[in-house]
Amino acid sequence: MAEQVAGFACERSLPSLKTYSAVFPDFFNLHFHYCLSIAATGEMEVYMEDLKEQISNLINQQQWNQLRQLAWNDYLIPDVASLLIGLNKADRVILFRLLPRPVATAVFSYLEKEDRNALLKDLTNEETRYLLTNLPPDDRTTLFEELPGQVTQRLLNLLNPDDLKEARLLLGYPEESVGRLMTPDYVAVRPQWTIQEAINHIRLKARNSETLHTIYVIDESWKLLDSLELSQFILANPQETVETILNKSFISLSAFDDREMAVKVMQKYDVFSLPVVDSDGILLGLVTFDDVMDVAEEEATEDFHKTAAVTPLKASYQESSIKDLVGKRMGWLIALVFVSLLSSGVIALYEQTLQTVIVLTVFIPLLLGSGGNAGAQASTLMVRALATSDVTADEWIRVFFKELMVGLFLGVFMGIISSIFGSMRGGLQIGLIVGLTMLTIIIAANLIGVMLPFILTKMNLDPAVASNPLITSITDVMGLLIYFAIATMILGPL
Q1: The pLDDT of residue 45
Q2: Which top CATH class is 188-307?
Q3: pTM
Q4: Exposure pattern of 106-119 as b/e (b: 16+ CB <10 Å)?
C-alpha cells in the first residue's frame, strides 16, 4: 500500500516537473528515477542486499575492474552510503577508493561523523586533497570542526590557495553560528538581465551551486535584492527583465546568528534555503535544509541529554569511551547527591514525629514520587514550548496562572485519591494529612517545573538544564517540608 501511495505521489508531481525538463533535463530525470526507486522500496532493499553480497565477493576475489565498471551513477547516494557502511572496515576502504571520484565525494558528504573520520585515516594525501577540494564548503567546514586541531591543520595544508582562503573565512565565524553552516556556492543574477539571460547564467553556474531551488538577485555591490524560486524564472516571459518579477519579500540571516536561529526561521517560513548577509546586506552565502536538519537533530539530542541530567556528548554513543560516559554523568550525580542530602536533613529534623506516628513513613514514597512526576511533566512541557517559541520568556505571568489552575485541578484529584488510601491505613487524620499534602505538593511542583525554565532563560542559560532529576530532587526536599508541616499542624507538636 505504501509503495502505491509513493508511486501515486510521484505520478502526480511529475507532470508539473515537466515544466523544468526543457531547461533542466538532468533535474527531471533525477526526480523520475528517484520516484521509481521509492515506488519499489521493498524490491530496492532486497536488491541492495544482493549487491552488497556481490561486492563483498568481488573484493574477496580481487576483481577490481568489475567493481569499477559497476554503474555507480545509477544509484542514489544514500543507497551507496548505506551499502558502504554495511561492509567491514577493510572492504569499506577498498570500495571507497574504487568508486568514481564524484560519487565518492557525494557519499563522503552523506556519511556520519565517525564514519568520515575513520575513512580519512586510511586515505592518501592525494585522495584526501581531491576529496577536500570537491566537498561543498559547508560540509568541509563541518569536517574541520569535528577533527582535532593538528589533523585539521594538516588537511588545510592540502588545499589550494582559493579553497584555503574560503575555509579559513568560514572557520573564522564563531562556533555554532550560521557562518559555520553556510556555503558560498550559490547562483545569483542581476535585476537588469532578461529572463533568458538569467536562465542561461543559471544553466552555466548550476553545477557548482549548492541548490537550484532558489535564485538570488543582487546589485553591482552584491547587495541582496531578492530571493526567487526557480519556477518564477521558468514561467516568466523570456524577454522581460528580472526586475519585473521581484517582490522583495525575502527572509535572510546574519552570519553571526546562532545556528538555532536558522532552524527556527526555516521551520517558520517553510523554505529550503536561506540567504546569509553581512551588516550591510551583502550576500555572503546560504544555508540549506540538509544542514539545518543536522543542526536540529544535534540540538534535540543535546536537550534530551540535559533533561536526563547528562552533559551532552561530543561524539556519538558508539564513539564515546567508558571514561567519557562516566565523566559526562558523574558531575550531575554528585550535585544531585548534595541536593538529596537536604531531604535527609528534613527527615532528621522531624525524626521524633516519625517515631511517634510511624504510619507517616508509609506515604513518603507516594507523595514524593507524585510531586517529582508532576514537576517533571511541567518542566518537559515548558522546555519544549520555549525551544519551539510556542511560549516566550515574557509570557511567564500568563503561564504561571495557567499552570496554577492546572496544578489545582490535578492536586484536587490526586489529593482525594490519596486521602482515601491514607484513611484506610491510618484513620481520618492521616487521610486528611496525606490528601492536603498531595494537593499542596502537586501545585508547588507544577509551578516549580514551569517557572525554572523561565528563570534559566532570563539568566541566558539553556532551559533544558531544568532536568527531570533536578526537578525531582528539588520537589523531594519541598515535599518533605510540606508533609511534616501539615502533619505537625494537624496532629500538634509531638
Answers
A1: 65
A2: alpha beta
A3: 0.55
A4: bbbbbbebebbbeb
Q: Where in the chain is the domain with CATH 3.10.580.10?
A: 188-307
Fold of 2-176: MgtE N-terminal fold (1.25.60)
- The pLDDT value recorded for residue 404 is 92
The CATH H-level superfamily of 322-491 is: SLC41 divalent cation transporters, integral membrane domain (1.10.357.20)
Instruction: Report yes or no: 434 and 419 within 8 Å, Cβ to Cβ.
Output: yes
Residue 271 DSSP SS3: coil
CATH 1.10.357.20 domain locations along the chain: 322-491
| Distance (Å) of CA 188 to CA 204, 234, 251, 297, 415 | 11, 15, 16, 30, 65
3-class DSSP state for residue 215? strand
* CA distances in angstroms from 114 to 141, 152, 295, 421, listed in the order given: 16, 15, 16, 54
Distances (CA, A) of 494 to 19, 346, 425, 488: 87, 16, 20, 8
286-319 per-position pLDDT tens digit: 888 877 877 777 766 666 666 665 666 666 656 6
For the chain, list residues with pLDDT below 50: 1-40
pLDDT given for residue 156 in this prediction: 81
DSSP 310: -
CB 361 within 8 A of CB 351: no
